[in-house]
TrEMBL record:
Interacts with CtaA. It comes from Sinisalibacter lacisalsi. Belongs to the UbiA prenyltransferase family. Protoheme IX farnesyltransferase subfamily. Carbon 2 of the heme B porphyrin ring is defined according to the Fischer nomenclature. NCBIfam families: cyoE_ctaB, PRK04375.1-2. Pfam families: UbiA. It comes from the Bacteria. Its EC number is 2.5.1.141. Keywords: Cell membrane, Heme biosynthesis, Membrane, Transferase, Transmembrane, Transmembrane helix. It is found in: Cell membrane. This is Protoheme IX farnesyltransferase. It is an enzyme of class 2 (transferase). The gene is ctaB.
């Protein structure tokens, strides 16, 4: 391809891109999880925050999450073009040029960190900067294509938002913040491995060393069960802290019982059964995993809402 054709393609992409394409570049689904868990971390903290400060902080945390998404799409454009579930993203679809995505990601990263520092404090801004670095450099550029443990270690990037929210309010990190981090961290592997079970061919085609590709589906099913059991311990431990309470523990017990039941069901299946029902059990488990995390953080939010009336907490 000549320089002329390259420039023309970039121009065409820029010309065709609309607001929706740029918004998709920021991975809005992931951003919604970032915003929600960060907001919960901020609200359940023992220090009150002025509503305008809280609103600004959540906005800048969201921008940081969106910046990470844009930089992830910039770096992964080559493999996104190969996978069915990602080929319609703005860059592989030819809507946004790679260089443009990179520029947006860098600009939003800088803006988010600086503005969070000005709106809140250095601890929160530092955690946000590290989160962006970890997701883009450690996970996207290195781990994702280097090891089947990519999603295990890389999951830390998605686990920082509640800790950042807590730091916005308190200017520090505590055991409650660490356990909120640990909840999301331990949830990430079974969540993504469930997805990997029914999109294995996509990862294989793109040469991404997901556990299903390197060790097979049987090993992945065993790993899902092991991490699900460990996740239940973390979830219940969080309920015993100052931000837990009867509402949270009830939700945690029910959701973890359902999650463990689903993980056991997956562990007993084989490839023939999965192919026969088109991975129905795995798809249900993946959907449950989405409700699982929102349910736990939603229960923490309820505890914090009831606390002023003497109804929440222990």
């Amino acid at each position: 391809m000549t320089d002329t054709s390259t420039n023309s393609s970039a121009f065409d992409a820029e010309k065709e891109a609309g607001f929706g394409d740029y918004f998709a570049l920021l991975k809005p689904r992931v951003m919604s999880l970032v915003v929600f868990t960060a907001l919960v971390g901020l609200i359940v903290a023992p220090v009150s925050v002025h509503p305008m400060v809280a609103l600004a902080a959540i906005l800048f945390i969201a921008l940081g999450g969106g910046a990470s998404g844009a930089l992830n799409m910039w770096w992964d454009a080559d493999i996104d073009r190969l996978m069915n579930r990602t080929r319609k993203r703005p860059i592989p679809a030819g809507k946004v040029a790679e260089g443009e995505a990179f520029a947006i990601g860098i600009a939003l990263s800088f803006m988010a960190v600086v503005m969070l520092f000005l709106a809140a404090n250095a601890v929160a801004a530092g955690l946000l900067a590290f989160t962006i670095f970890f997701y883009v450099v450690i996970y996207t550029m290195w781990l994702k294509r280097a090891t089947p443990q990519n999603i295990v270690i890389g999951g830390a990037a998605g686990a920082f938002p509640p800790m950042i929210g807590w730091a916005v309010a308190t200017g520090s990190v505590s055991v409650e913040a660490v356990l909120m981090f640990a909840l999301t961290f331990a949830w990430t592997p079974p969540h993504f491995w469930a997805l990997a079970l029914f999109v294995k061919n996509d990862y294989a085609k793109a040469h991404v060393p997901m556990l299903t590709v390197t060790h097979g589906r049987a090993a992945t099913r065993r790993h899902i069960l092991g991490y699900t059991l460990a996740l239940a311990v973390v979830a219940l431990a969080l309920g015993l802290t100052s931000i837990g309470g009867p509402v949270y523990m009830t939700v945690a017990v029910v959701l973890n019982a359902m999650f463990i039941k689903g993980a056991f069901a997956i562990s007993r299946r084989d490839d023939a059964a999965c192919e026969a029902d088109q991975h129905l059990v795995e798809r249900r488990f993946f959907k449950l995993s989405l409700a699982y995390l929102f349910g736990h953080f939603g229960a923490l939010l309820v505890e914090a809402t009831l606390a002023p009336y003497g109804l929440g907490g222990w």
